[in-house]
Fold:
Amino acid sequence: MTLSIRKTATAFAAALALLAPLGAAQAQGIDLDSLEVSLDYPDPWPLENLIEEGKLIIATTGKTQKETFIGDDGTLQGARIDLWTKLAEDLGLEPEFVRVDWSGVMPGLAANRFDMGCEGASWNNDRLTSPDFFLTRPVKVAIDVAVVKKDSGIESLDDLADAKLGGVKGEMELQHLLSTAGQDETDALALPGVTEARLALLNGQIEAYGTGIHAASALLDGPDGDQFKILPQPTAVGVGGFCVNAREPDLLTAVNFLMAKYRTDGTIKALNEKWDLPDTSEMLSVVGY
Amino acid sequence: MDFDLSIWAVRGPYILQGLWLTLALVAGVLAISTPLALAVGLALEARSRWLRAPATVLSWMVRGVPPLIILFIAYYVLPIVLDLRLESLTAAIAGFVVYNTFILGEVVSAGLRAVPKGQHEAIAAAGLPMTRSLRRIVLPQAMPSIIPPYVSYSMDMVKGTALAGAIGVTELVTRANQAIVATNRPFEILLGVAIIYGVIDAMLIAVQMWSERRWDHQGHVSP
Amino acid sequence: MNFDPTLIENALPSLLYGVRTTIWLFLAIMGLCTPLALLVALARVSRVRGLRRAAATYVNVIRALPLLVILYFTFYGLPSLGVFVSPFTAALVGLTVVTTAYLAEDLRSGLMAVPRGQFEAADALGLPTWRFVWRVLVPQALPVMCGPYFTRAIVTVKATSIASLVAVSELTAQSMAKVTETYRSVEFLAFAAVVYLLLTSLMAILQSRVQRRVTLP
Structure:
């Protein structure tokens, strides 16, 4: 599974490499190919609107495998935790993680309790236009997929029309699965979380589980993971990033700057490899990031 | 499905650290809301309209709103409206105290109603001071009707403390849920959680049995 | 904080679906619980020791078990034994079993308020048990039971929100789904709070009506 994603990513990179020589290598007599482009940034970055001076307060559920979760030793870890920690350090701040249930993340951003939140918010129109928070540059290409049991006989998206569908309540991934299969919201089993969705799939209470490629890969790597498979065609493709407190436009600028840096210097890619997550960061250039 | 309780050897210490927060919540909320509930119960049954009316309206509003919303108000709305930034645990205790005070206040009020009206009149006629008549005559008679629902709602509250996870209190269930997501072992972990709650609630039931025996002036049908 | 009512307008169909589910679930629970809890409460004050013990065990064990765990095992655990329960049924059964235990305890407090002398008097007169219960005990206990009964009903309206755990699309679940979908919280939380307040206000109005009718002289 992860293989196919990496293959796709590599294909995109190869295509870009082919395109590059076709572009203008010269402008006004300057040899563009030999130019070294790098950006400078203030260190420490002066941030006027932080909730607490010297601290970057980040809300996280600690309930997303491989991204932000509690390890065997009881500490918060994962690819996102590593990234946020680095982000805070590069801004000259101390990261402080507040573990809240998902229901508390949005009210907390609106109420000026947290500087940042969201593990990987898929972009949609409501979220992009929300006055309660800013969406940062994307950290990943969000690939929504359908997970089924190997013995279910479901081989492609075409087989989903009459299947019992499910996913996590309110998530875009579930809605994309439903619209792909042409089913209505009321026909689906909307489960409270990823654990319940996994159980429902294992139990046969649902036949296909609509989720993101990151959660799907964690599912396949977990217990009974060999019983599941991911349908080869995605149900939707978008991008996902973090949320920044709407009172802190300077933090948004800083985060966006650093995220672009982490994308180009390979930090995000390295973290995805470290945590065995499908790396989609290189595909972001397709949509201009 | 295999059932492997050894998961508790690895994850137990982390989850059990949340037990202290749960117990702190339970103890704090019960200790503060019990006297307040008595005051609310008396206000609800007061002869003066100036006491009764505000108590009735507040009770209607507080009991009518889900406790989660009250916690959200304590943690997310107070900073905006009153510029009051409570810590997670403080906000959770404050929110649960408000909710519990009115729930238990209704229990007290119902218990007071169980005392025959003639007695209030007799007390007034005898010119007994208010607090003394309350302590010596009215409350002892109301106790048998107050204790069972009082303990019931306290047991309800014990389990309700799990809601505090939404405002950053990493109590028992919040930690259990984190462990469930990380390990995919919901049944083993939930069984342990059920046993822990069972022990806390068993203590409350013991308090109920003890106090019922103590206050049992009327007894049950049995010969 | 920004408040955008058009969000609620757009989400109204699915929110109202949630409201309907909450109301049906609540009515079904109370319809089942009320007679069951009265029976358990009567068993708790019965003169038959076995009955008393059984009722007490049921009430105490169920009150000590978190509903979350009961629902989890019935809905997500039983299928591995080949037993499938629909979400609504799982929630209804779980909430009924639990609410009955709590309500029985609330009602018992009313029965306790009836002076013991009356039990002895009924005995002396040779009044049949059921006649005594319906004609003497319950009518006298009603004024005292009324408050706790409605408080329990009010608590139960909100307790139905736990059904979202087993994929029942009730009010809280539908509101939280909209929060996740739109990342806007204030609007949907306010909507849910107002609807719960309306439903519980209906209970409160009913309570004051009933209480006025059943007050002891």
Notes: Chain C has a mean pLDDT of 90. Chain C is about 80% helix and 0% strand.
